[in-house]
Each structure stands twice: as C-alpha cells, then as structure tokens.
C-alpha cells in the first residue's frame, strides 16, 4: 500500500483549481455562516447552600417579560423567544438583518427541592433563580462530642 501526501496550506493549490478553493474559503470564512454556527446558549452558574439552590443565567439585553420558566415534574425549563425588527422607511437595503433571540435551557431538579419555594428575578442582565429545599433536606450543623 502506498501513502500519498496530499497538499496542505503550505503548497500552492490554487494552480489546480483556484475557483473551487476560493468558494470553499469564502463559504467557511463568511461571518454570516460562522455567526449562525456558534451556539447561543447563555452561560449558567449553579450553586448550592444548606437552604437552597441558586441558578444564575447570563442573558443581557432582555426584559423580565421575555423569560418563560416552567417546572414539569422534576425538570425546570427556562426559555426565551424574542424577535426584533427594525424598519426604516425611505431606505433601500442591499442587506438587512433581523434580530432574533431564542434559547432554551432545562435542568433536572433533585428530590430535595421544595417546588412551592422557587423565586426568580432579573437584574443587570442576569436571571437569578432561587430554589428552596425541603425542610427535611436541610442539613443541621451540630458539634459531636467525642466520648
């Protein structure tokens, strides 16, 4: 079996077929394509204290009314769907982009969650959700005496 080394970037492959190379370079380097390939899911911080769980979701540029938080059995889903269209009269556009923000994050909640004690607030671009624990799940701290 013979091994054949294919030309890499260091070789001049434009001499073979410059049109094909330019098309593929433009296709994969186009900002329109690369912007859509990047996942747009907000970053999340999850912390736990003896009394509750805390979820912080970074979502700047939104409003409180944009968020939908649903709890179904032991799964909490946070979703946003926002469409913004800017129309300016009297101008002819050669390219026009619409702003469309949409994402959904789901979290499986543990059995110790008190479903009646879930609060959410949105401030400075961060959605903060506090999920309380059941009373029996809270760990009581105490000193154990050695005998």
From TrEMBL:
It comes from the Bacteria. Pfam families: HSP20 (PF00011). CDD domains: ACD_sHsps-like. Signal peptide: none annotated. Residues 35-147 form the SHSP domain. Belongs to the small heat shock protein (HSP20) family. This is Hsp20/alpha crystallin family protein.
């Amino acid at each position: 079996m013979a091994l054949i080394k294919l030309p890499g970037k260091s070789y001049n492959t434009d001499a073979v077929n410059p049109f094909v190379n330019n098309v593929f370079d433009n296709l994969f380097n186009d900002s329109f394509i690369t912007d859509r390939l990047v996942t747009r899911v907000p970053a999340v911080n999850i912390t736990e204290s003896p009394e509750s769980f805390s979820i912080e979701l970074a979502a700047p540029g939104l409003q409180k009314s944009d968020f939908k938080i649903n709890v179904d059995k032991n799964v909490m889903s946070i979703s946003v769907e926002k469409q913004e269209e800017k129309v300016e009269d009297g101008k002819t556009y050669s390219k026009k982009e619409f702003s469309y923000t949409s994402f959904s994050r789901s979290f499986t909640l543990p059995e110790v969650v008190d479903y009646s004690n879930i609060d959410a607030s949105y401030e400075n671009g961060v959605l903060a959700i506090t999920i309380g624990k059941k009373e029996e799940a809270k760990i009581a701290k105490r000193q154990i005496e050695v005998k």
